[in-house]
Every structure is written in C-alpha cells, then in structure tokens.
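Here is an idea for our session: we take a single protein and study its fold together. Which protein we use is up to you, so please pick one and set it down. Once you have written the record down, we can walk along the chain together:
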Amino acid sequence: MKILFSRIKIFLKAFSSNRLAALGFVIVIVMLLTALLAPILAPYPPDKQIYQDARQSPSVQHIFGTDLLGRDILSRVIYGTRISLMVGFLSMAIAASFGITAGLLAGFWDDVLVLFIFLILSDDKKNIFIIYIYIYLIKKLTVTKARISYTI
C-alpha cells in the first residue's frame, strides 16, 4: 500500500509540473462536468422552439442568441458537449483497439502487417506491383533462410 501512495505522489508531482498537461486535464474535467450537468446548466431545453425569439442577437435572455427556429444556442452548445465527448471517447477506443491489434499482429506477422499498412497508405494502385515483388522477395528470403539453417 505504501508503494502505491508513493507512486501516486510521484505521478501527481510530475503531472503538476507540466502546465499544459494540467490545463488539458482541467479543460476535460470542465467539459465532463458540463456534459453531466447539462439539464441543470442549460437555461432552455435544446430543442424547444420559440418562434417569437427567432434570430435574436446575444442578450441577457439568450446569452449566445437564437437560431432561425428560435432555439437557444447556449443550450444547444451545452447539450452538444455530450455528443462531442461521446464521439471523442468512442474514436479513442476504436483507435486504441486497432493499435493494440496491430501491435499484437506485428509481434507475430511483421511482414504481413507492413504490407497491409503499405496498401492502406498507397495512393497509387501501381504500387501493388511493388507489393507483389516484396512478397516474392520475402518468400525467397524465407526459403533461403530455411535452407541455410537446415544445412548448418
């Protein structure tokens, strides 16, 4: 237990010394709190249409103004943080799962992964010819390695 607290202390000390990391952390926490407290913070429901208030400029009643249908823009921005955070975390999870999978595959089949990445990044279909040559050379080298190790 003592080791855990000392590691947490070291982490907090290093984290607090990096101002940009601390600022990013504060921004993410503010966004999370805004998304969680959206029903409390938003002055109006985000989809409520008040046609008399359509196209109002910013005022005391509508801090960011209203859109063409009379919906309060501040309320829509506050509720929009929920969608933004959900998209951000979901894309991060997808990217992490692809990265973990690619890392696992690279440990076993490095050549196949290199070819796959090369196919994805190639902007030209003429590069497929280069891939065929690469596959041929890998097979040739693998067979050569096998013959050398077999004869020794």
